[in-house]
Design a protein that fits this description.
The chain has 301 residues and is of the alpha+beta class. It has eight helices and 16 strands. It folds into two domains: 10-105, Phosphorylase Kinase, domain 1 (2-Layer Sandwich), CATH 3.30.200; 107-251, ATP-grasp fold, B domain (D-amino Acid Aminotransferase, Chain A, domain 1, 2-Layer Sandwich). The chain has helices at 49-63, 77-83, 91-94, 119-128, 167-174, 176-198, 251-262, 277-295, and strands at 10-13, 17-22, 26-31, 34-37, 40-45, 72-74, 98-102, 105-106, 109-116, 130-131, 134-135, 145-151, 154-155, 202-213, 219-222, 231-235.
Length: 301
């Protein structure tokens, strides 16, 4: 599914998700099979990706009940149809890929936790010894564990590139009290997730969380949580610091796009190059494997 058309008021469309209103205080998040890399949305879809992202998030939300309040009400199609009967003829469209959630006022920052230095953080550090302009200790190597993990917030971008910002900037945007609470919550969620995933042979190298304030004034975890799109998953049994690590995520797609950039066939902006069927299939396989490794089960929709 590249896009959805449900008989509900659509209130948003992101890179991957279509968002619908369900009454005044709930939303339906419909995760399509769209995929983005380097903040550019591809023309092709990745089979089963939307269901993987929704159901991994649902699994984590169930695990996190004692760690943090969150927005999920249900990710079961029949439960959702009971709450929104107009969706009954569209059960096949929502099955596995839709989540009914509490509606919130979303904070305009992504709360990134980096437990290991990789990706854009490594690129900046290797060039200047900094992350978001702030100095890190010298001598780190690529993929090294960061102790303690670093809270590294970023701006939220519906289109275009997200941008790392300083904690001081978050305080300016949200106020000291909210900024401190978001950092505490993000660290607690990451610590729980990292420990849980490691028991399954997965390292969560970094991840990003989003938060919102609900109608009762509570700050709660929203959006997706510790999925292959929001996180960098590594296999613990082959982890070797000092080099890039194989990932259980969209790595086949990133590798292909990197090769296209190096060859001068893509400048990194939209529109992206067409994806070969082999890249689409390999990426879909990675997503399904990530679900199996995290949850311990094969995905059933």
């Amino acid at each position: 599914m590249h896009a959805s058309d449900l008989p509900l008021p659509r209130i948003g469309r992101g890179k991957v998700r279509d968002i619908y209103a369900v009454g005044d205080d709930r939303v339906l998040l419909l995760t399509t099979d769209r995929i983005s890399a380097f903040d550019v949305v591809m023309a092709e879809t990745i089979p089963m990706k939307g269901a993987v992202l929704t159901q991994i998030s649902a699994w984590w939300f169930r695990q996190l009940g004692g760690v943090t309040p969150h927005h999920m009400i249900s990710a079961d199609a029949d439960d959702i149809i009971r709450e929104a009967p107009a969706l009954k003829p569209h059960r096949a469209d929502i099955a596995g890929r839709a989540m009914l959630c509490r509606r919130t006022t979303v904070f305009p920052v992504e709360c990134v936790i980096r437990g290991y230095i990789s990706g854009s953080a490594w690129k900046e550090y290797s060039a200047s010894g900094t992350l978001a302009g702030e100095k890190l200790k010298p001598g780190l190597v690529e993929s090294q564990k960061l102790e303690p993990a670093i809270f590294s917030p970023a701006t939220k971008a519906e289109t275009g590139h997200d941008e790392n910002i300083t904690v001081a900037r978050v305080r300016q945007l949200l106020g000291d009290e909210v900024a401190e609470k978001l950092e505490r919550m993000a660290r607690a969620i990451y610590a729980f997730g990292e420990q849980t995933a490691r028991k399954r042979g997965i390292i969560i190298a970094d991840t990003k969380f989003e938060f919102g304030r609900d109608s009762d004034g509570r700050i709660i975890l929203i959006d997706e949580v510790m999925t292959p799109d929001s996180s960098r998953f590594w296999a613990a049994d082959v982890y070797q610091p000092g080099q890039p690590q194989p990932s259980f995520d969209k790595q086949p797609l990133r590798d292909y796009l990197d090769a296209e950039r190096r060859a001068g066939r893509w400048n990194g902006d939209a529109p992206p190059p067409p994806l070969p069927e082999s890249v689409v299939a390999a990426t879909s396989k990675r997503y399904l494997e990530a679900y199996r490794r995290v949850t311990g089960d094969d995905l059933k929709v």
